[in-house]
Amino acid sequence: MERLRRTQTDFLCEAAGGPETYDAEPVREAHLHVPFEPADIERAVGLLREGLAAFDVPEDDAEAVVEAVAAYEEELLDSLPG
Ligand code: HEM
């Protein structure tokens, strides 16, 4: 859990423009063993948006982060079996 917090924090920092960089597994590989539905991705992005708003991140910055993360949707869908 501690490691996941760190790698996800790095990931979000990089998505937000750095200077922190993400150096764990590529998103597709990291989720190969994770069972989820496509709708869970929307839920994850929605929670991210809510979190950014709760901490009063300016709308433009928040949108840029949300878009950068949402851009991984295809990679995630690609990790689903079949
Ligand atoms: C845009 C959506 C998402 C992004 C950008 C994302 C990104 C990440 C990143 C960066 C990690 C860390 C990988 C590592 O430490 O090597 C991670 C791990 C994980 N994610 Fe996601 N994720 C997304 C959606 C989801 C969804 C929808 C689920 C399931 C409902 C999920 C479940 C997990 C789990 C269980 C791990 C831990 C895997 C492990 O360490 O064994 N993620 N994710």
From TrEMBL:
<dbReference type="InterPro" id="IPR012292">
    <property type="entry name" value="Globin/Proto"/>
</dbReference>
<keyword id="KW-0813">Transport</keyword>
<keyword id="KW-0349">Heme</keyword>
<protein>
    <submittedName>
        <fullName>Hemoglobin</fullName>
    </submittedName>
</protein>
<keyword id="KW-0408">Iron</keyword>
<dbReference type="Pfam" id="PF01152">
    <property type="entry name" value="Bac_globin"/>
</dbReference>
<dbReference type="GO" id="GO:0046872">
    <property type="term" value="F:metal ion binding"/>
</dbReference>
<dbReference type="GO" id="GO:0019825">
    <property type="term" value="F:oxygen binding"/>
</dbReference>
<dbReference type="InterPro" id="IPR001486">
    <property type="entry name" value="Hemoglobin_trunc"/>
</dbReference>
<dbReference type="InterPro" id="IPR009050">
    <property type="entry name" value="Globin-like_sf"/>
</dbReference>
<dbReference type="GO" id="GO:0020037">
    <property type="term" value="F:heme binding"/>
</dbReference>
<keyword id="KW-0479">Metal-binding</keyword>
